[in-house]
Specification:
The structure is a homotrimer of 203-residue chains. Chain A has one domain. The longest helix of chain A has 23 residues. By secondary structure, chain A is mostly helical. Chain A has nine helices and no strands. The first copy, chain A, is globular. Chains A and B meet through helix 2 and helix 4 of A and helix 2 and helix 7 of B.
Amino acid sequence: MLYQTIDILGTVAFAISGVLVAMEKRLDLFGVLIIAFVTAIGGGTLRDLLIGNTPVVWMRDLTYVTTIFIAVVFAIIFASQLKYLRKSLFLFDTIGIGLYTMVGIEKGLQANLSPIMCVALGTMTACFGGVTRDILCNEIPVIFRKEIYATACILGGASYFLLLLLPIPASYAYLTAIFVVIVLRLLAVKFGISLPNIYKKTS
Amino acid sequence: MLYQTIDILGTVAFAISGVLVAMEKRLDLFGVLIIAFVTAIGGGTLRDLLIGNTPVVWMRDLTYVTTIFIAVVFAIIFASQLKYLRKSLFLFDTIGIGLYTMVGIEKGLQANLSPIMCVALGTMTACFGGVTRDILCNEIPVIFRKEIYATACILGGASYFLLLLLPIPASYAYLTAIFVVIVLRLLAVKFGISLPNIYKKTS
Amino acid sequence: MLYQTIDILGTVAFAISGVLVAMEKRLDLFGVLIIAFVTAIGGGTLRDLLIGNTPVVWMRDLTYVTTIFIAVVFAIIFASQLKYLRKSLFLFDTIGIGLYTMVGIEKGLQANLSPIMCVALGTMTACFGGVTRDILCNEIPVIFRKEIYATACILGGASYFLLLLLPIPASYAYLTAIFVVIVLRLLAVKFGISLPNIYKKTS
């Protein structure tokens, strides 16, 4: 129950982030729909393909497509309001990666993957939809910008496996890890934290 | 028998459309072959991966590769004639999406997907090869241009399920739906029909 | 044993080639890691997905990820030395396609594919990682440059099936075919051999 709710919330967050990018590029109605779908299902599709969980989940369960459709209609209608919230795209994208990281890790555990591979799967689930959204909209993918992005997913995912070692319910560890991903990303952007430079300085 | 024939005809149409785009970009022989293959098998590959129908169909059945090879040789030899038919690329691409839409829907039904997912699968089968062709050739994908493209596949696919409700043989419904996709796309381009504008006019 | 060794050596070669391209583009640490991973596992992932060998091999066996990680650390530390070897990228890429061509063919045989499909699978295994590396780094993919690249994989792969007809051990044929791919690519670049022109000369 908790896991399905998180999955649907992530779908909503990514669908809205897709609509916001697509409308900024002034795509037509179909283009907006496509970008919203790709953003919301891209990560889960890659995840399901890699672990051989086919037909991929959104083809078997209409909940996803219905949710995306409703989110798109809602986002288009309220687009002008969302536009005034200048950070809304960043926020929805950040919530999306937090939720999807844990959805991917959960699926990895179900497929008996090792913790390291679960974290990798969670990170790909979280990041791939946004990367595809940005490539299709001709933007530099967020993941390659000088910010902590996938790193937040990796650290959040790792925190889940560490938290599981404590005597707390698994659902607490699950929700805390989502929180860790979101907070890390927010703090990284707020304080301009990025990865260390591996190049020698050239003056 | 009918379904295989339609599948092979779609393969020929898309292979030729791939050759035409690749030659316009003056790629070398290998590049032309690759683009023709990717255009012809891209949609079916995505379809087979999504529903878990692996090894993907063209790896199990040499008919596809042989067909594409013959179509490419034919298209290169007669390229100068095809060039004079200025609309030949558009025509082969349109025939291709009509045929592949129904091939995809048929595979979706075999995988017990719901009608909505079958139409989505048919549309992806039809559109993905052409999108990949255009990305590799550095063209704006046809699907994102201001024309009805995927919409024709969706409406044609939906018409199939409506026609199945009538007391006619399934093969009639199948062929009529292909016809619907092709005619919708031809009419949309001829009369410049596109999707409604979702943006408020800015003067 | 031989096959695993070849697979790991190919992984090392491609991971290093990924690091070299990514550092030339001055990506940050995470970007370098991602490009190295994608280059090293891209071909094998496509191969496993196409034949339905899921979860894909690098998710089930930590050897790959560990190997790539060590190769990346090594390559970053010694990057300044590798930089002076101006042809090092070309060399690692060429060794990589030689090794991966045969890894792919072996997996195709295990999946009972016909020889032609095995060669196609080997060529895709060899080429896809490099193509993805170049697209992500915004370079024209090597495969589309005016050189023999995939053709070397195809000819080397075909030579394997011809060599199997001779009364020699399969492992000899296997190693010779790798050698054929590498030598063909080296000779093609050294002597500027490319595919025949299919366009009529325009003066």
